[in-house]
Amino acid sequence: MVIGAALAASAPHLARAAGEQKVLRLQTRQIEVGGKAATRLGVVQASGAFGLTLNEGDDLDVRLENALTEPSGLHWHGLIPPWRQDGVPYVSAAPIPPGKSADFKFPARPTGTRWMHSHFGFQEQDLLGAPLIVRETAAIKSGIQEAVILLQDFSWTNPQELFANLRKPKAAMNMASGGMNMPNMPNMNMGNVPTMTMSGQTMGGTGTAMAKADLNDITYDAFLANDRSLADPQVVDVGRNADVRLRIINGSSSTNFWIDLGALDGTLLAVDGNPVAPLKARQFPIAIASRADILVRVADQAVPVLARGEGRTLQTGVILRPPGAAIAKIGNDGKEAAPAVGLMQEMQIRPTEPLPTRAVDHSVPVDLVGNMTGYVWGMQVHGMGGAPVTVKRGERVELVMRNTTMMSHPMHLHGHNFQVTEINDQKFPGAVRDTVLVPPLTTVKVVFDADSPGLWAYHCHNLYHMEAGMFTTVVYEGFS
Q: If DSSP codes are grouped into helix, strand and coil, which group holds residue 370?
């Protein structure tokens, strides 16, 4: 197997990986959270650099060494490798045993902000992920400084225990609108979760009853940006009156974020590494596993780039500091809980490189089901739990994802980019992505071209939902 380009998230400038094979090692490492040492997992080069960066036209050429005491591996999230090099254990290949290595080599495409992470057990929650950047030729020529921000959620409790707690039996929920039990809706965790109406974009439904969505499965102890909390944030030195391209990766296991620039306007340049028409805002939603490239102009004062967890006051971020600027102390908790991450901004995004216009050959209904009572989640393809999505090479395939639950699901398809085409019956030429959020009681349609024969994972990227069953595959007929 082989790896590709990612960048040193701890540095504001990207160091290009040369043409020779790179060695990445999966190993334990120590970080500090809240003044306490924590041993977690990491992806490092021999130099100690975190992640990899390639340039457009490079190959991803990597020897991946497993220095852990358990099997592991990496998935190259957002890249399109040969399916046998996709890094999903027991789907594309076996995991790498402890003390062993595997080679990966394939063209690093498409360009843009990607990332890499373990797909084995709960290793992703133990921070086994890193940036993987394939810098666009246009970005290189622009000379604009870049800063990569990898967001992750952190708990002092080990993930197996977190998962076991989630699966403890809970009472079924009664809806306030008539007392009817809703088996596909999770028992609501009412703590610090804002009320939302089902008639709005946030909930995505068509009813008028009031309900509280379970925004967070887990109450995390900290959110991290490049391994650091706001108690000791990373400070990125930038030029005065300079443009900075932020490459933001939501590498969390179970948290959707809002990127908050305060009073500063930012311009969205790309989502999931794919270019979009410039979209100005001060806040940008970023779902689990998604990425956002945002251009900001820093004048002569320090600029906090905050990531606020939805439904929580807890936050993290980095500081952009021009020469001589003072840095104000920012707490790990904001003044109020961040709202739910929805799709209103998603409906405004327009790709600059959309998929070619063509008719859909094959439409596949995918119901997202589950409940918090026993913490069981699933994907029903054509109404059948556990069934794969079967496609033929050359087809234009439509996935109709209908969320019947009261939790959001960030849905990721390996080996392909898809285009968002419809949300709750509203058609529009939406973003080209590899991960899309499907909020509660919402239907999202996407299309992709079946041009990568193989056996590909297709799942919710909330790690705990995936482990509880929200996982299936896309299978090409007759592939080998």
A: strand
Residue 25 φ/ψ, nearest 5 degrees: -120, 135
In this structure, is residue 302 part of a structural domain?
no
Please choose, from the candidates 22, 1, 26, the residue with its C-alpha nearest in 3D space to the C-alpha of residue 104: 1
142 SS3 class: helix
Q: Using an 8 Å Cβ cutoff, are 421 and 446 in contact?
A: yes
Give the model's pLDDT for residue 342.
Answer: 97
Residues, the chain: 480
Alpha helix positions (H), 95-181: 137-142, 159-166
- Is the distance from CB of 304 to CB of 329 less than 8 angstroms? no
From 95, 113, 142, the end of a domain falls on 142
Q: What is the pTM of this model?
A: 0.90
Residue 341 inside a domain? The answer is no
Domain total of the chain: 2
Q: Which domain holds residue 375?
A: 362-476
Query: How confident is the model over 368-398, as pLDDT tens digits?
Result: 999 888 899 999 999 999 899 999 999 999 9
Q: Which two tokens stand for residue 320?
A: 């952009």
CA separation, residue 329 to residues 263, 308, 363 (Å): 17, 16, 52
Q: Which two tokens stand for residue 379?
A: 């994907």
pLDDT digits (tens, 9 = 90+) for 344-364: 999 999 999 999 999 999 999
When pLDDT is averaged across residues 192-205 and rounded to a whole number, the result is 33
Calculate mean pLDDT across residues 138-156. Answer: 98
In a domain, residue 124? The reply is yes
Going by the DSSP 8-state scheme, the letter that residue 434 receives in this structure is: S
What separation in angstroms does the CA of 474 have from each of 192, 312, 420, 450?
37, 35, 18, 10
pLDDT class of 451 with cuts at 50, 70, 90: very high
Given a cut of 70, is residue 18 above it in pLDDT? no
Distance between CA 472 and CA 457 in Å, rounded? 6
Tell me the two tokens of residue 249: 């990766």
110 belongs to a structural domain: yes
Question: How far is Cα 292 from Cα 114, in angstroms, rounded to an integer?
Answer: 10
- Domain stop point among 90, 115, 142: 142
Q: Percentage of the chain with pLDDT > 70?
A: 87
Q: Residue 138: give its domain's CATH number.
A: 2.60.40.420
